[in-house]
Amino acid sequence: VSWFTESMASGSPVLIEPRHCLVSSQCPESDASEVEGPTVPVYACQRRTALPNWNQILTDALEILAEEAEFGNSEGRSLAFARAAPVLRSIPYAVTRFEDLNSLPCFGAHSRKIVQEITEDGSSVEVQRVLHSERYRTLKVFSGIFGVGKKTADRWYQEGLRTLDDLRKKEKKLNRQQEAGLQHYTDLNSPVTRLEADKIQHVVQDAVLRFLPGAIITLTGGFQRGKQSGHDVDFLITHPTEGKEMGLLIKVVSWLSSQGLLLYHHMKQNSYKEPTQMSVQASKDRLDHFESCFSIFKLDTPNEQMESSSTAAENIRNWKALRVDLVVTPFSQYPFALLGWTGSKHFERELRRFAVHERKMILNSHALYDTKQNVMLPAHSEEDIFAHLGLDYILPTERNA
Ligand code: DCT
Ligand code: MG
Q: Where does Mg(2+) bind (predicted)?
């Protein structure tokens, strides 16, 4: 893994000749060439992916195609693009020639063609076509509403709806979550800054410690990976004495609500039962079973003036709506929850895929199970989990796959 750590340590852009990175022989789509040298591993959880991204134009293009394929329910096509993009995100140099891809894993013919078009012509006809297509644009807008998934977005599109105003005007029957999502659409689609996340952390910490001194509140998700902005703020809450966390969340949420800090929330009960045995099928269960609260916070922004979408008289306001997730975990599951909630989504997907295919283990946000020995593997830290999996430890800031 030392193939790029040195250049990243300086924190400044260093252009490295791509020929330093050779292909892992594990990758079926690549031609492991004759030259000796370090390789770019196939699984994202074997790579260190620090910020910044040197290939954003290319990764944006591949991710647009991945998303479009997902909108079209083409899972395989979507995954192919979704696996190629993070390879480019992991390398500490900009790919400027199509030939640079020869040294990289996970690039199939289609992804290669897109990179070739962009490096040679400046843009990709296919990506431009997607970006201008009415369907993609509409689904992008609709799926940007809190509470609207890809399936619902597509159904609305099929029904002839095209804009947020269509949803408002046609008095489309929305659920409570979607109503709130639509109402706060502009705020929720503008990035949450690190400063805002820190402010929210203060508020959450204050509320939690009020009811449970000694509780641990951790900012996870993209901010834990060192990102300076994100689409929401994710918190894990636990207490070193297992069991003390029970009954906490409802008190915290009631208090936040009584202070007028929640514009919307819904809660989910803890539904985790420790399995006696786990099947590979269980690893496909992406949802976790922690007690959680999914909310829209009202954050005071005293020095800023936000434009309101409502009437002129109140078009200056001093607050912003922000998405906040609160997740409560028993202490013994905390390392798994932390690993699962730190992300990135692709890093998590790859950890689970690596666990199943390379180790015959099942990993989720609650536990790690060894299907060969039929035992749960306990962990006191994220490091323990990487060690069980036989992986080098990857820092959160290096999980930006
Ligand atoms: N997660 C996951 N699988 C999903 C959704 C989420 O493993 N289908 C994990 C990984 C990241 C974490 O939960 C938080 O999710 P997001 O907030 O969606 O991701 P993020 O990386 O925090 O992105 P952002 O910075 O935009 O909030
Ligand atoms: Mg997040």
A: 232, 234, 325
